[in-house]
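Run log, item B.
One chain of 288 residues. Sequence copied directly from the ordering sheet:
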Amino acid sequence: MRYEGSIYRPPSEADALILQATIGCSWNHCTYCDMYRAKAFRVRALDEVLADLDDAARRDDGVEKLFVADGDALVLPMDHWLPILDRAAERFPRLRRVSAYAMARNVLGKTDAELRALRERGLSLLYVGPESGDDVTLKRIAKGDDAAAHVEAAHRAHAAGMALSVIALLGVGMERSEAHAEGTARLVTDMNPAYFSALTVTIVPGTPLATLAGRGRFAVPPTPDLLRELRAMVDLARPTDAVFRTNHASNHLPLGGRLPRDRERIVALIDAAIDGRVPLRPERSRGL
């Protein structure tokens, strides 16, 4: 496989073949993110991408999971997506899941028929990171889409038969912490993902958020405040049945379970952590 620059994928795609069909992120304005700032966005030539699939299959045709990168690969036009999905299905007979990062605007940029076609050809899971359900916070972090757009995108993806993995970002609300947490819980309820995870905001050098922090206009909230945000999100969100995780290295408290089944247990663990009865991840073990 040929890769350009740093490659990122969700933790749950650790065992997936990563196919770089786009370079960078078509939006690339989120204040907290530095993953694609060194890359100018472009769509890779289709023949190169298909050749990478062929090469990977020659090495190992037993691939079961394929993650299509980079930052918001759903933006790919259909005349790229369909040949990629068809070639992947042809080359990997055991393939059971194809996934990609997506912004709400990427979903909304496809017609219902196009979304159904993508699902029918194998694209079954989208990773969407609204980070917050509070529109003021979304505007501050330059997310590019508001809560309503994320809900509409989720409904259209579900109608096409796609599952969603939704990501929230603890700590980005600052003085709007309560609105951020409660709004995110509402958004998770309305988006009704199959997977819901929370990460903790990190000030990464070179990002707009780092510039704001240097000017005294942003600071990561104290750990107890972050845990209270997490508690509110878990306690108030009402997905139908979602796998919940906070196992990302940025988090102070690794948790796992299903919502709503394990809500009371998870909330009790967060309360115990706030009270100091459950140890937190050592600071030296935290990071991006």
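Observations after the first pass:
- Residues 177-191 form the longest helix (15 residues).
- The mean pLDDT is 96.
Flagged for discussion on Thursday.
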